[in-house]
C-alpha cells in the first residue's frame, strides 16, 4: 500500500523499444518480493524510531521507553537529541511557508526561495530516520493500539446497523487557495480547508496548465505511509495530463505529511489502530474528497476523475459507492484504480504486508475474527454498484499482487461490469504494477480517451 506517484508524462517520452524492455526486466514480481521486506523491515521501524524521537524533544529516556530500547547508550542519546533542532527548523520553515503562501501581501518573487527553504528542511527532518539504522533490528515497526470489538461497536455501531449513514455528504467549508508558483507552462498552488471530520486542516497540492482552463480535473489519492508533501517530488510527474489541459489535485491523506500526528509517522494510526484506524481514515478522507470534487466543479471542470494507488484506490472505490447519496456536484465522473482489491478483509488477513506486520494475530488478540469483522465490512468495502458509469472506470491490476490480492480486484471489476477493454491485467505485483505505468501508458491513454468522450 506504499506507493509513489508515477510519471505519466515520461512514459510517453521513453524509446518505444527500450520502454517495454525496462518493464520486462525491472517492474516484475521480483521487485515486489523486495518491496514488502524493505517497507516492513526497514522503513517502518526507522520511521517508528524517528516519530518517537521527534515527540521526545531530546528526552532520551522518554524516547527509549516508547520504542523498548535501553536509555544508557550515549550514541543513541546523541541521535535523539540531534533530531530536536531538525524538527524545530522544519516547523519554523513550515510556518513561514504557510504565512507567505496564504498572505496575498508577499511578493511573488519571494515565494520560490521560501518554498525551497521549507522543502530542504522537510527533507532533512525526514531523512533523520537513517540515524537509527544501528538499532534497526531492535525497533518495532508500528505502535500498536488496536481498538477492541466492543470499543468499535460503541463508536461505529449506529453506522454498522444502518441507523445513520456512514459516509454522508459533508458540509462545504471555506477552501483557502494559496498563491501560485509558475513553472514552464504550468502553475502550482495549494488548498487548505477544515477537515469535515478530523480536528485539523485538510491539504491538497494543485497542478494545472497555465494557459488554459481545465475542463477536467483528476484527483490522485496516495498510498499508506506516503508523505508526498515532505519529500522531493519526482520531476514531470503529471505532465501528460497537464498537456491535455487536465488539472491534477494531490490531497494529503489523514495523518500523513503535514497532517502527521505527533509521535506517529505518516499513516501509522491507520495500521496501528486496526479496524478503527481504517474506519476513521475512510470517514475523513471520503468527506475531504467530496469537498475537492465540488471545488473542482466550481473552478470550471465538467469532468472529475478520481484516481488512486493502493490505499488511494481503496478510498476511491468507497467514494464511488458512498456518492450515491451525495449531491451531483460531489460525485466523481470517472475512476482510475491501480492495485486495488474489493475485499479489505483479505487485505487485512491475507495480504503480504499485513502478514509481515503480524496483523492477523494482533487483530485476533483484540477479538477480531472474520465473524466479528463481518458487520463492519459494508463500511470498508464497496458493496453495491458504483455511482459511476462502468464504462468510465479503468482498473490496472497485478496478477502477482499479494498485498491487495489480485483475485478480489478482479472480482470487483466483474461485479461492477467494467468493460474488458478498461481492465488492464499485468504479470506484476503491488509495487511493480504501479511503476509499470512508466513503461506502458495504455491504461492512461484509455483514461484520456474516456475523458475526451465525456467532453
Write down the CATH class of the largest domain: Alpha Beta
Number of domains: 2
Structural class: alpha/beta
Order of helices and strands, N to C?
HHHHHHHEEEEEHEHHEHEHHHHEHEHH
Tally of separate helices = 18
Which stretches of 5+ consecutive residues score pLDDT under 50? 4-19
Give the second-level CATH assignment, the architecture of the largest domain: 3-Layer(aba) Sandwich
Strand content: 5-15%
CATH topology label of the largest domain:
Rossmann fold
User: Got a strand count?
Assistant: 10
Q: Return Rg in Å.
A: 22 Å
**What is the average of the pLDDT values?**
91
End-to-end Cα distance, whole Å, is 33 Å
Report the biggest beta sheet as strand number plus sense, adding barrel if it closes: 10 strands, mixed
The percentage helix is 40-55%
- Molecular shape: globular
CATH superfamily of the largest domain: Alpha/Beta hydrolase fold, catalytic domain
General description of the model:
With 455 residues, the chain is α/β, with parallel strands linked by helices. The chain has 18 helices and 10 strands. Strands 1, 2, 3, 4, 5, 6, 7, 8, 9 and 10 form a 10-stranded mixed beta sheet that branches. α3 packs across α5. The radius of gyration is 22 Å and the shape is globular.
In short:
45% of the residues lie in helices and 13% in strands. The chain has helices at residues 10-13, 18-25, 29-56, 60-67, 74-101, 108-127, 149-160, 239-243, 268-272, 275-298, 311-322, 344-350, 352-356, 359-365, 370-373, 406-415, 430-435, 442-454, and strands at 176-177, 181-183, 186-194, 201-209, 216-221, 246-252, 303-309, 334-338, 393-398, 423-426.
Amino acid at each position: 500500500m506504499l506507493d509513489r506517484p508515477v510519471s505519466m508524462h515520461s512514459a510517453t517520452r521513453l524509446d518505444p523499444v527500450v520502454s517495454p524492455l525496462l518493464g520486462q526486466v525491472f517492474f516484475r514480481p521480483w521487485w515486489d518480493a523486495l518491496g514488502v521486506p524493505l517497507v516492513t523491515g526497514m522503513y517502518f521501524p526507522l520511521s517508528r524510531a524517528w516519530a518517537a524521537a521527534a515527540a521526545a524533544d531530546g528526552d532520551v529516556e522518554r524516547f527509549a521507553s516508547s520504542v523498548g530500547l535501553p536509555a544508557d547508550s550515549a550514541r543513541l542519546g546523541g541521535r535523539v537529541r540531534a533530531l530536536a533542532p531538525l524538527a524545530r527548523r522544519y516547523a519554523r520553515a513550515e510556518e513561514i511557508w504557510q504565512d507567505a503562501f496564504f498572505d496575498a501581501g508577499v511578493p511573488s518573487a519571494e515565494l520560490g526561495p521560501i518554498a525551497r527553504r521549507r522543502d530542504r528542511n522537510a527533507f532533512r527532518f525526514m531523512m533523520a530516520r537513517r540515524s537509527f539504522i544501528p538499532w534497526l533490528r531492535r525497533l518495532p515497526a508500528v505502535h500498536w493500539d488496536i481498538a477492541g470489538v466492543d470499543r468499535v461497536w460503541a463508536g461505529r455501531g449506529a453506522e454498522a446497523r444502518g441507523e445513520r449513514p456512514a459516509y454522508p455528504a459533508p458540509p462545504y467549508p471555506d477552501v483557502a487557495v494559496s498563491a501560485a508558483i509558475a513553472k514552464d507552462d504550468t502553475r502550482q498552488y495549494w488548498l487548505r480547508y477544515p477537515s469535515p471530520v478530523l480536528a485539523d486542516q485538510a491539504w491538497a497540492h494543485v497542478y494545472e496548465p497555465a494557459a488554459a482552463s481545465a475542463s477536467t480535473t483528476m484527483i490522485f489519492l496516495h498510498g499508506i505511509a506516503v508523505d508526498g508533501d515532505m519529500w522531493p517530488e519526482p520531476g514531470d510527474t503529471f505532465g501528460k495530463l497537464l498537456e491535455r489541459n487536465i488539472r491534477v489535485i494531490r490531497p494529503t491523506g489523514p495523518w500523513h505529511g503535514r497532517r502527521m500526528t505527533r509521535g506517529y509517522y505518516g499513516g501509522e494510526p491507520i495500521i496501528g489502530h486496526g479496524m478503527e484506524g481504517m474506519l476513521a481514515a475512510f470517514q475523513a478522507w471520503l468527506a475531504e474528497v467530496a469537498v475537492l470534487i465540488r471545488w473542482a466543479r466550481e473552478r470550471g471542470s465538467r469532468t472529475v476523475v478520481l484516481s488512486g494507488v493502493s490505499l488511494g484506490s481503496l478510498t476511491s472505490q468507497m467514494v464511488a459507492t458512498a456518492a450515491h447519496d451525495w449531491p451531483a456536484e460531489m460525485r466523481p465522473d470517472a475512476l482510475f484504480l491501480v492495485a486495488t482489491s474489493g475485499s479489505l478483509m483479505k487485505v487485512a488477513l491475507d495480504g503480504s504486508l499485513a502478514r509481515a506486520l503480524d496483523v492477523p494475530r494482533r487483530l485476533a488478540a483484540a477479538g477480531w475474527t472474520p465473524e466479528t469483522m463481518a458487520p463492519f465490512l459494508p463500511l470498508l468495502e464497496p458493496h453495491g454498484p458504483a455511482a459511476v458509469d462502468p464504462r468510465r472506470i479503468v482498473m490496472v491490476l497485478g496478477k502477482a499482487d499479494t498485498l491487495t490480492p489480485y483475485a478480489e480486484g478482479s472480482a470487483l471489476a466483474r461485479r461492477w461490469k467494467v468493460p474488458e477493454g478498461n481492465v488492464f491485467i499485468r504479470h506484476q505485483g503491488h509495487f511493480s504494477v504501479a511503476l509499470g505505468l512508466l513503461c506502458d501508458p495504455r491504461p492512461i491513454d484509455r483514461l484520456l480517451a474516456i475523458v475526451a468522450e465525456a467532453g
